């Protein structure tokens, strides 16, 4: 097949990996369970890649990427590409010369083994995608393994398509890494001289294979970087561009403006830059003009939002593209980032109102938008006149819809006062009132909320949806599970119990389905990490709570035990972060609407006799703006929305919150300002590092640093958990420490849950007896 490359090209940086029916998830989990072998998994992956290739080609995408596919995570892929495999994983899977061995070592790094903990996991910039953190120390040695990018390039070439391989750039890879040894004066970026020659070799081999362009992703450069890092960026790309045999280099950035890195890359000898021109990154346009443009380079313009699901404003995007024509040697049209972050196809959502469906654009529809914009740019607006007319009509329909703006909701938000944002008494007084009511021992033990979602629970929900189970029979099935979960926790000996959340499909979707202003999808799956996919709700209009959402289940659970049972809610920031949020008003306004709905639920739980209420905010750090100068405004509304949700309760009602898998150092003051009585945080994968951070920040309330990494299918021993606890007690007052896992137990199985929680309780007993 011969490709026709127009003056302006339509392209993307990546596409959803999983398939329309999450075929990749099923194939990987089949391999993990031993139901299929390595050949079957590799074959299923190849079929999915070729299917995506056909879809992109038939949509009219001119330059198609390759190597965006991953079995688990693209940063982990890069670590394997460079041979940066920790010794414990080499020992866990010593033979990686076969396909099965290579896969098993890869998955050992991602998930761990009985004897080898996995790599740490954290959020990919300000998204809900998780990446595996490379471990790089002063003694790390690298060795290039190009099999994956070469194989994926060759399989597309066999179909007549010369793709553009996509790789994590060297600077971003090192900036995302951590040194597990803690060597003083060392940072992973010091290894740049070791990996740049490998990247140069990589470029050479890809060119020899037929690649004309290679994309090196450097999203770390949209964060604030000091002068010495920018100097290394300049040096790196001078070196890579000096290669005698290499493809042209496209350096891609996304999620925010390049800022100080823009003139560095603009003056480098690379042939192309990819910039985001949506949301905060719209400032790239002014910065590009101020820098005098890049007349000698290719510009790939991300004018279609790759992170949200709203139909693009095509006339406005065309206007941006027209301006950019005067600032670059050539202008191509793209989404702002990989389409990994949005669902696959709106047409799969047969249950959506057709009018609302017209407001939306998932990955497949974004291809049509990109291709239409490329035609409009090269052939003129008249060539896409009908497309523009339909687009404008749909944008107008959304703006005028009565579900978008609800006067009663807006009046209530306008009536919020400063007094609504603060507890009646300071923490010290509340703590005494709570102790008098709840009577907890030192180092109280609990879990984060969810218990395993068994196949029986999923079948019950499916039967309810299909009408095969009536509401009362479903409710009894949930009550039976709650009784079993309460009894299990009492047998194990936990101090504060949870009802296990059997009725919840997802911690955001469950609430979104009960709040006005939210809509759920049937097939809107988005990868969170590995084989964990979520269906973020869509916030289409003003938000309110028609009736209680959790009170019945929490009250029933409390009726089954004398021990305290936590009420469990998802906080307003996380409700926004893990939904596709409306883009027609400030996010802080939407957060206040959600906060008021949750405030009603919190007060109803308190009235029902629930003494501990947990409002989870795992996304607080994730949503932090990438640029330091924009963070204060975000934290103001984020903290205020949490306070609005929780501050109406009595002193003797204990408020908990939970956060996980993020770098918390940047938000420690905000965590203090939230004024939750107890915060639980992910800590096991990072060896309890957050505890020292809390102590140094003077965190005044109670904290539960996680002692069990629940994202790894292993049972930590009593001694391992006790070691974590000793580390915590050495850094933070024991009288203000709780003992809990890192996160909810939804994805784990009952055998490992029972074993690990028993170990957790035994380890806590040891510490209580011998601090």
Distance between the termini: 71 Å
Number of domains: 2
> What profile does the largest beta sheet have?
7 strands, parallel
- Portion of residues in beta strands equals 5-15%
CATH class identity of the largest domain: Alpha Beta
DSSP strand count: 18
As a whole number of angstroms, the C-alpha radius of gyration is: 26 Å
- Give the fraction of residues assigned to helices: 40-55%
Structural class: alpha/beta
- Specify the number of helices: 28
Q: What's the architecture of the largest domain, going by CATH?
A: Alpha-Beta Barrel
Round the mean pLDDT to the nearest integer and report it.
95
CATH topology heading of the largest domain: TIM Barrel
Shape annotation: globular
Poorly predicted runs of 5 or more residues? 1-6
User: Which strand order does the major sheet show?
Assistant: 1-4-5-6-7-8-9
Description:
The chain folds into two domains: 23-400, TIM Barrel; 423-769, Alpha-Beta Barrel (TIM Barrel). Helix 25 links the parallel strand 16 and strand 17. The strands form five sheets. The chain has a seven-stranded parallel β-sheet with strand order 1-4-5-6-7-8-9. It contains 28 helices and 18 strands. The longest helix is centred in the N-terminal third of the chain and has 22 residues, at 38-59. The chain is 43% helix and 12% strand. The protein is α/β, with parallel strands linked by helices and 771 residues long. The model is unreliable at 1-6 (pLDDT under 50).
